[in-house]
Specification:
Length: 188
């Protein structure tokens, strides 16, 4: 026997998909606009410096930044340039789009946006640390690691991050609905 979903459920799903699609397209356009105007170089530079600091204890010699080339790491004659695409702007935008499109109050959305911006930034730094470490210790593996494995890394890692936020939202919603339906108890 098939379960028939109420119209409001279908409407919410349609609304989520529509809002997410519009916001995701806007985040993609934002990344393109940033790339065209070279906006975000300071953020890219911060990623580069953070990766350099984190990889030094791992035995990675990222060298000094070449003159006039911010956002560049040199490891074993492999040049890692942290571009705007490597700064995870699009992945962050997709996460934020999913949070904002999901039905819920502004408080859970603010928590979601903060979780997404910080979480994706940390995952992205981890991604670049992995690439620098591979460049140092297994330079023959670098191209495969960069072109194949790390292309999907953020998608694979950001999806569970969003699901953790979603589980928290659903659990918080169940708690608030239980407390709203519980009879009032007086302490007289």
């Amino acid at each position: 026997m098939a379960v028939i979903k109420p119209r409001s459920y279908r409407r919410q799903v349609f609304q989520f998909v529509l809002v997410f699609t519009v916001l995701a397209a806007a985040s993609s356009a934002l990344e393109t606009w940033m790339r065209a105007r070279q906006i975000g170089v300071g953020y890219q530079d911060a990623i580069t410096r953070t990766v350099r600091a984190l990889t030094a204890p791992l035995g990675v010699d990222a060298g000094s930044m070449p003159a006039g080339q911010r956002c560049t790491l040199r490891v074993n004659n492999i040049q890692l340039v942290v571009t705007i695409e490597c700064a995870a702007v699009l992945a962050t935008g997709l996460f934020v789009s999913a949070v904002l499109a999901f039905p819920g109050g502004w408080r859970v959305k603010v928590v979601g946006v903060i979780l997404g911006v910080v979480g994706v930034a940390l995952l992205n730094v981890l991604r670049v640390v992995i690439l620098a470490t591979v460049a140092q210790h297994k330079p023959d593996w670098f191209n495969v690691t960069h072109d194949v494995l790390m292309q999907g890394f953020l998608v694979v890692m950001v999806t569970p991050l969003w699901l953790v936020w979603l589980a928290w939202v659903m659990r918080a919603g169940r708690r608030s609905s239980r407390s709203a339906s519980a009879p009032a108890v007086r302490g007289d």
